[in-house]
Each structure stands twice: as C-alpha cells, then as structure tokens.
Specification:
By secondary structure, this protein is mainly β. It contains 2 helices and 9 strands; from the N terminus they run αβββββββββα. The strands form 2 sheets. A 6-stranded antiparallel beta sheet has the order 6-3-8-2-1-9. It has a 3-stranded antiparallel beta sheet with strand order 5-4-7, with no helix packed on it.
C-alpha cells in the first residue's frame, strides 16, 4: 500500500495488543496501542522523534519530564516534542486504554506487533544488545 487508508477509530478500538504498527512511511509511522488497567508505557524519550497521541477510549495520565502531568480523555490528543521524557499511564483499574500514535520519523521496525508490554520490553532490550 502506498499510504494508510482505513477506519483508524475502529482499528484502535478493536486492537487488544500493546503495540501494533499499521503503517510505516519514510517520515512517519502509525501505531495502535492498548494499555491494560493500571498499565503504563514507562518513562521514555525519543531524542529525534516527535510523537502525536489520540485517545479513543479511556483516560490516560501523561507525564512530561517527571513533573508536568495531564489527564487526557477519549477524543483528546497530545503532542510530545522530540527530547521530552514522557510516560503514558492508564488511570483506570478496570478498563483498557485504547489509543493511536504517530511517530515522526518512524520509531519501530515496519510490521512490529507486540502483544504485551513484556513482549515489547524484551524486543527493545534485544535491539540494544
């Protein structure tokens, strides 16, 4: 496919994987994510990657640089500039957090699917060795 065309809201809501890359282009990447109740991405920073998030279901807490916090609800978006430490936390104890994100430039290998956070962490650890 030349680009991405599809029902992104539906794909986001149907996704139950921690991370699934839907499209990778030269300058951007589209990824759907699902965080389990109480789960978080973990504090991370992308030195040369801007990141856009859109929440489709649930409520998240975004933490920037370990001090700035924002509560973000369904139908809201967040942009994280390159070089900003950030974490995304599912604040619910019972419901999944469904979101999609756009990395610019791409941040994961094309076709990446991590069914769980543990699987994602293991893959990232293997990449750094």
């Amino acid at each position: 496919m030349t680009g991405y065309v599809g029902p992104i809201e539906d794909q986001t809501l149907k996704n139950n994987y921690f991370r699934q890359v839907l499209f990778t282009g030269k300058h951007s990447q589209l990824v759907v994510m699902c965080l389990q109740p109480g789960e978080e991405i973990g504090n991370e920073v992308h030195e040369k990657v801007d990141q856009f998030f859109r929440i489709e279901q649930g409520t998240a807490k975004f933490v920037f640089n370990s001090k700035e916090e924002h509560k973000v609800h369904a139908n809201e978006a967040v942009v994280v500039p390159a070089g900003t430490h950030h974490n995304v936390i599912n604040t619910s104890k019972t419901a999944q957090l469904k979101l999609y994100t756009v990395y610019s430039p791409p941040n994961h290998p094309d076709g990446t699917i991590h069914k769980t956070k543990a699987e994602a962490e293991a893959a990232e650890a293997a990449e750094h060795h």
